[in-house]
Amino acid sequence: MPILNGIKNNEPKISKLWEDPKNPVGAPGNAKWAGADSIEEPASFSGGYGGAITVSPEVKKIIDLRKLASRVQGPEPSKPTWDDHIAELFTKPFWIPEGTERDRVTARWIEAMKGYMMDLESYESVKPWAVTTYYHLRGRSMPLPGELGEKEYFPKEALELIRLWINQGMRKTTDDEIELREEEIEDVDESEWEVPRVRKDILELTQDELDYYRMQLDDVLRVGDPDQSSPWQKLGSIHTEWCLHYQEAFLPWHRAHVLYMESLIGCAVPYWNFFAKGADEYGNPSAGIPQAFLDEEYKHPLTGLMRPNPLKYACANGGMSKGAISPGYQGDLKDSKSKRYVQRDPLLTGGGTEEERREKIAAVKLYQDQILNALTWPIFSQPQGLYGYPWANIQSFDPPPEDDQYPNREDFDGLFEQPHDNFHGWIGPDMADNSYTAFDPIFWSYHANVDRIFEQYIHDHQDATFSSIFPLQPFTGARADKMSLGDPRKHIYTTIGDMTKTSLALGYAIAPPVHEDCPPKPVPYGREGPTAGSKTPYVLFQGVKCTTESYTIDVYINCPETNRRAAASNKHYVGRLTRMGMGASASKGRCVKKGVTRVLNAAGAAECLGIRDDAEPVLSQVVTDIKTGETVPEEVYKGWDGFVGKLVWGAAMPQGKGRRVEKPRG
C-alpha cells in the first residue's frame, strides 16, 4: 500500500504562487523550498531541500481577481466563459511555458481523456463532466502527463476560474446569461494548498540536497557548538528530559520531536532505512551507517567553503561523548576535541576485523525480524496510563497466566520498541543512552525511518484505538511546531491524537525507499506452518522499567558456556534485549512505575536445535553493561527489575500474517 498519494518519488514538491517561464520551478533562485516566514515578491525565493513554504497573508490573497486578470487571457476573468477562458486551460495551460513541450503535453492529455469518453476541446463534451473534472483537478488525481513537477497540476488561479465558471452556469460565450448554480462550489480552504515537506531516503538525496540539510544543521542549529545555550544542545536536551518510553506515547512523542526539529530547520529530515532488504549483508549498499554520516567535510552551499561534516562532527551532550566516559568503548578518542563529538561503534566506522564487521552487520537481520513480527499485530498499545490489560488477542500460554502479568506482550508499539532499542544500542555509545542519543544527528534520520514504519501502521490500521487527549509535553500545537517547558495548562500541548493522524495531515509526506523493505519470512517449501495445536517458545521479561545506565541482555537456549556468542550465526542464540538508560536527569514522572513485559520469540533457535514443545530447554543469558563493557554477574542482575527471562510455550505465530512496508509505485 503506497504511503504517498499524488507525490512523485523523484523530487520534493514546491509550493509556488508565481512562475517565471524563463526560470522554471526547481531552478536555482526561483523557488524557496525552506526557511521562509513570509514572501513578498517572487524574487525572494531561493534554493533548498524538502521544505514547505509559509507565505504572508498578502500572498495568500493571490486569487484576488486583479492578480488573476494579469495571468489569464480574455475579458473579465470574474465572469469566465468557455470560449474566452476555460478552453485554453485545457489546450494552452498558461502555467507551462509556451512551446513544443506544452503542445506535446496537452496533445497527450487530450488524447488520453478521450479514452474516458471526454473531449477536452469540446464544450459539449466537457460540460456534463465539469463538476467531477473540477474536483479531480482540485484533488490532484488528474495530473497532466509528463515529468513536469509542480506544473503537472492545475494551479489555484486556474481552478478558481473553473469554479467561477461552474457556479455561474458554465457559459459558453459572453452572450449567454449568468445562471447561478443552486449548490455553489465553495472556495478552496487554504489548508488544501499546503504542499508537504517530503522526507526522502538519505541515499536518494542529491549532493545539493544533502549539503543543504547539512548547512541547516550547521547554521541554524549550530551542531558543532557545545555551549548549553546553542540550539543543538537545547534540542537534544528535550529528549534527555522529556522522552517517553515503555508506554503508548512512545511513537507519537518521537513523531512530535522530529516534527519540532523540522520546524526549526525549515526542511525535511531524510530517513535512514535500516529496514531495507540486504541491510544485514556485509557490503550491501543498504548495510551499515550511510556514508553521509561518515564524510569528513562538506561544501557549504552559500559560502562555497569546505566545513566539517555536521552529520559526523556533532557536539555530544554537554560537549562530552558518552564514549569518552565509558571504559568499555573501544573507539579512538585521541584528544579532548574528539571527545567533544558523538561517537559510534568502531565496527560501523571501519574499525575491527572484517569478520567482526560482518558479524555486526548480520545482527541487523534479528532486529528486522522483530519489526516484521511487530507489524503482524493489530492492537497498537494498551491505554496510556493503564497497566496490565491488553485489549485483545491475548496469546494462550500453558498454563494460562493472569492478564495483568504480561502487559504489552502483543501490542505493536511494545514489540516495535524492542528492535528500536536494539538498533540504538547497535549504533552506540551515544545512541545507546537516552540522555545522549538525540545529540547524534543519526538519531534524527533513524527516527524519521521509525516514523515511516509507524505511518504504515497507521495506514494499515485505521480503526486503531489511541488515548487521543494524552499530552506529549513539552510540544505544543497540533503539529508540534512549538514547545513550552513549564505551562501547567495540559490542553495546550500536542496530543497522541494529533500525532496519530496521517503524515499528510501533519504537513509532510514520505517518499519511498531506494531499496525495498525487508520482506516477511516465507513459509518453507512443502510446509504449511504451525498447526492450531502447535506451540512456540517465548522468553518473557516482566517488570521492565527505566534504568539509569544502558545494558544488553543476550539470551540463549541449550548453549554451552563456551559458545555464548551474540551472533545471528549462533544456532543457540535467541536474540537481544537492549535496556536503554534514561540517565540521572529529573524524570518529570515520565517513567512507568509498574513496568512492562518484553518478549523474545525463540522459535528460530528452537527449530535450529530441533527442540519440540514437549521439551524443557535450558535458558541462559548474558547481561552486559554498555558503559563499562563488563558482564554483570548473575547474582547482581537477578535483583534488578525486568532483567531475568522466563521461557514459556505459547500459541505459535500464524504464518502469512507478516508483511512488509510496500514500496509505493512512482
Structure write-up:
By secondary structure, this protein is α+β, with helices and mostly antiparallel strands. The chain has 18 helices and 13 strands. It has helices at residues 57-60, 65-71, 82-91, 100-114, 123-126, 130-138, 156-167, 207-219, 231-242, 250-265, 336-340, 354-362, 364-374, 412-427, 441-460, 496-499, 603-609, 634-637, and strands at residues 197-199, 297-299, 306-308, 471-476, 482-483, 493-495, 508-510, 535-544, 551-557, 573-579, 596-601, 619-625, 645-651. The strands form five sheets. A three-stranded antiparallel sheet has the order 5-4-6. Strand 4 and strand 5 form a beta hairpin. Helix 3 (82-91) packs antiparallel against helix 7 (156-167) and helix 13 runs antiparallel to helix 14. The two termini are 12 Å apart. Mean pLDDT is 80; it is low at 1-48, 51-70, 384-409, 523-532 and 654-666.
Summarize the topology.
Layout (H helix, E strand, L loop, with lengths): L56 H4 L4 H7 L10 H10 L8 H15 L8 H4 L3 H9 L17 H12 L29 E3 L7 H13 L11 H12 L7 H16 L31 E3 L6 E3 L27 H5 L13 H9 L1 H11 L37 H16 L13 H20 L10 E6 L5 E2 L9 E3 H4 L8 E3 L24 E10 L6 E7 L15 E7 L16 E6 L1 H7 L9 E7 L8 H4 L7 E7 L15
Parallel strand pairs: 1-7
Antiparallel strand pairs: 2-3, 4-5, 4-6, 8-11, 8-13, 9-10, 9-12
Strand order of the largest sheet: 5-4-6
Could you tell me the CATH topology label of the largest domain. Answer: di-copper center containing domain from catechol oxidase
- In oligomeric terms, what are we looking at? single chain
Query: Any low-confidence stretches, pLDDT <50, length ≥5?
Result: 1-48, 51-70, 384-409, 523-532, 654-666
Termini distance? 12 Å
CATH fourth-tier homologous superfamily of the largest domain: Di-copper center containing domain from catechol oxidase
CATH architecture of the largest domain: Orthogonal Bundle
Number of helices: 18
Number of strands: 13
CATH class assignment of the largest domain? Mainly Alpha
For the CA atoms, what is the radius of gyration? 28 Å
**Major sheet: size, sense and barrel closure?**
3 strands, antiparallel
What gross morphology would you assign?
Answer: elongated
For the record, the count of structural domains works out to 3
Structural class: alpha+beta
Catalytic activity: 2 L-dopa + O2 = 2 L-dopaquinone + 2 H2O; L-tyrosine + O2 = L-dopaquinone + H2O
GO molecular function: metal ion binding; tyrosinase activity
Region (Disordered): 14-34
EC number: 1.14.18.1
